[in-house]
Amino acid sequence: MPSKKNSDIKDPSLAAAGKQRIEWAAREMPVIKLIRDRFAKEKPFKGIRIVGCAHITTETANLALALQAGGAEAVLCASNPLSTQDDAAAALVSYGIPTYAIKGEDQATYYKHINAALDIKPHLTIDDGADLGTTIHTKRTELIKDVIGCNEETTTGVIRYRSLEMEGKLRYPIIAVNDAETKHFFDNRYGTGQSTIDGITRATNVLWAGKTVVVAGYGWCGKGISMRAKGLGSQVIVTEVEPVRALEAAMDGFRVMPMIEAAPQGDIFITATGDKGVIDKSHLKVMKDGAILANSGHFDVEINISEMEKMSTKRRTIRTFVEEFTVADGKRHLYLLGEGRLINLAAAEGHPASVMDMSFANQALCLEYLVKKRGKLENKVYPVPPDIDAQVARLKLSAMGIKIDTLTAAQAKYLTSWQEGT
């Protein structure tokens, strides 16, 4: 067991409770279990140091344990100041996985934890938002020579790494795990959809039926949120900047309009764009009394909180994870959830384990792939290899007891030939 100085967590006495919840999550993560069992036999990460900058949850713990079983020296730090589950962090330390994460840590502590984790000089990294990789590329460049590659878990991080690549500054290969079909189709749509609604409900105890819900962004996360809000009886408005996504939202049965038109109508606002200032001063000025604002994008920049502060005379915490802003005229109150950070992790438990099973199966197998391809990949952002994506899907189907058809030889030949026609 690592000593206390090798970790920074809230309370080691929470470990027992954390272990029970990690075991509970494992029941819904059969694919990770299969991978963990194989890793334990084959030891693909023997002698490999891995740093994971991720949401420190029970699901992440099961991924870390699979890597540890595969021979890795694994260290974890938080990828978001409010997403850490302190009991899971304590349990990870008790399992011998140094962890630097405390729910509610300030920004200085957040980056202190990232740097502490990086002190092991990783060969592989797992990133969720690219803060780990950005730190390596700017302030810890001495580590680059040892890095084989990195997996990026979320949309925002993939965007940042692609920007690095376009500028010619990317120093090691990245696998965009977020873009795997078995990740974004399920994790982003079903996971974010359910967990976002869950987080807002836990924080506010609002009735969704009859509410007007404004969803900013109609990517996979926005689609999932819109679907779940509609299922609970809400009237959903979608705001978008991409014409194809806006058209899709309209054809899915949602009202589509600019945010400035939606702002006076909405009861609940949920951002899921990955961009900044999506809800800005002009929108805040026309929102109705009692409007609830939540973010489900990765960083806390989508809602302009500084403008909320400037236009308010009073700010107070009225419920856990609910801050009330009294607007200067005294006639309106706006409610910000979870400090504008990821509401599904700030006020709830994040995605259900069965969804994260697929995401983290991709993570585990892509890390193994990076080790096998050591020295053979360019400094580029790569997609998840199709065979890994398909393998995860097959394993998940098998775990669910679902069988599917296979192509006959004649069918396979027909699909790859041009000779046959009408």
SSE diagram, text form:
Elements: H1 15-26, H2 30-42, E1 49-54, H3 58-69, E2 73-78, H4 86-94, E3 99-100, H5 107-118, E4 124-127, H6 131-138, E5 149-152, H7 155-166, E6 174-176, H8 181-204, E7 212-216, H9 220-231, E8 235-239, H10 243-251, E9 255-256, H11 259-262, E10 268-271, H12 281-284, E11 292-295, H13 305-310, E12 312-319, E13 322-327, E14 333-337, H14 343-346, H15 353-372, E15 381-383, H16 386-399, H17 409-415
Parallel strand pairs: 1-2, 1-4, 2-3, 4-5, 5-6, 6-15, 7-8, 7-10, 8-9, 10-11, 11-14
Antiparallel strand pairs: 12-13, 13-14
Helix pairs in contact: 1-3, 1-4, 2-3, 2-15, 3-4, 3-15, 8-9, 8-15, 15-16
Q: What percent strand?
A: 15-25%
Query: Largest sheet at a glance?
Result: 8 strands, mixed
Radius of gyration: 22 Å
Low-confidence stretches: none
Number of DSSP-assigned strands: 15
Strand order in the sheet with the most strands: 9-8-7-10-11-14-13-12
Overall pLDDT metric = 96
Topology-level CATH name of the largest domain: Rossmann fold
CATH superfamily of the largest domain: Adenosylhomocysteinase-like
Number of helices: 17
Tally of domains = 2
End-to-end gap: 69 Å
Q: What is the top-level CATH class of the largest domain?
A: Alpha Beta
Shape by Cα distribution: globular
Known CATH architecture of the largest domain:
3-Layer(aba) Sandwich
- The proportion of residues forming helix, as a percent range, comes to 40-55%
How would you classify the helix and strand content by structural class? alpha/beta
